[in-house]
Design brief:
The chain is α/β, with parallel strands linked by helices. The protein is about 25% helix and about 40% strand.
Length: about 140
């Protein structure tokens, strides 16, 4: 079986702030930017991995989501508990310095975890947790 990751979805509540974070801070390329009915879906990804995409989407866009669910999603996004993404870097300490130097919201400085990885964490402008682990 030949299965690979094509896309993952992260919510955004400010497309311009999210675009600036993923493009300008993380260095991802913009692959698509689609607007519809006052909403935007922005697809980004690492330049050297054209088959892997992160779609930044408006979380309330699904017509099957109720108003109560939208409120819950908004509350969870504000707390940073709705969505997350785990990335990897050849040098997590250097990545941390570069990203923190761009005034990103630091959740955790680089640390050796008891489960065997070295990582750090940030929150993107929508509150999503972005964890970066050291490549082995």
């Amino acid at each position: 079986m030949d299965i690979s990751i094509h896309a993952t979805f992260l919510p955004h509540d400010d497309p311009e702030a999210s675009l600036a974070f993923y493009r300008d801070v993380l260095g991802f390329e913009v692959r698509n930017d689609v607007g519809y009915d006052g909403m935007r879906w922005i697809t980004v990804g690492p330049g050297d991995q054209p088959g892997i995409n992160v779609v930044l989407y408006p979380p309330g866009s699904d017509p099957g989501v109720s108003d109560d669910e939208r409120r819950t999603i908004t509350e969870m996004m504000a707390k940073g508990t709705f969505a997350s993404l785990v990335l990897s870097a050849a040098d997590v300490d250097a990545a941390f310095e570069r990203i923190a130097g761009a005034n990103a919201d630091v959740v955790q400085e680089p640390i050796d975890q008891p489960y065997g990885v070295r990582d750090c964490a940030f929150r993107d402008p929508a509150g999503n947790q972005i964890r970066i682990q050291q490549q082995h």
